[in-house]
What does this fold into?
Amino acid sequence: MALDKKGQEELDELRKNPEEFRTLMTGVQIFLGRFGYGVGPYTGTLDQSTKQALKAYQEKSGLSQTGDLDFPTLKHLTEDDRVLNRVVPFLPPQTFHDQEWGQWVEVQGSWMLKEGNTDDVLQTSRITCMKAFKRCIDSTASLVNSNVPQLKVHTHVYDIQEWDDANIVSAPYDGEACAVSILRISRNPQLVTRFLSLQGKPGPCAKVQAEDRQYVLEDGPKIYQILRMQKSEAIQQILQVAK
It folds into this structure.
């Protein structure tokens, strides 16, 4: 609520500068036109057609139908545009090589929350475990779907705590900021899980909410189809389509 109040105050201040507000309104009109609300040409002014388009958008989005540009409407427009711009990459297929289980194991796939929500961060990992070195090396590529999608690469080294005929279990790994994780690879059924515990503590992690998550290493094409369906459903909610 405090952020919304601050956002509204900044928007009210922006209205006092005609040129800056005109630039903002041009962007709003582009959003509305893209979403199917028939605004154009883009004049940068809050004219009658733009007010009608805003009111129709607010009605469909469950916002107060003011026909004016307030902060909740601007925030909603920006979030909807972000959904339309969201990148859905094709992820690599899952592999599980355990033919030399007593010596080394290599698995590959993309992480998905056990509950089914894939978040805004997509992570694909290749994990190689070597019994002689008592370590699992996890090389992960992360795609962060922010305003500008970012690709990051991380390497995590897990010390192996247990390796028997059925399972490989790592010791807790605390090399990630504000988190501790444990890796588990099961041979039958073939299953790779990562238990992640987010931890709030003094310093940069002070605002992190303590939370436990369980991720499963899934088949990339399966996650791709789920993401495609989620984006398609979200777009149907955003776009104004003639009946």
The chain has a mean pLDDT of 90. Helices lie at 2-14, 18-34, 48-61, 71-85, 220-238.
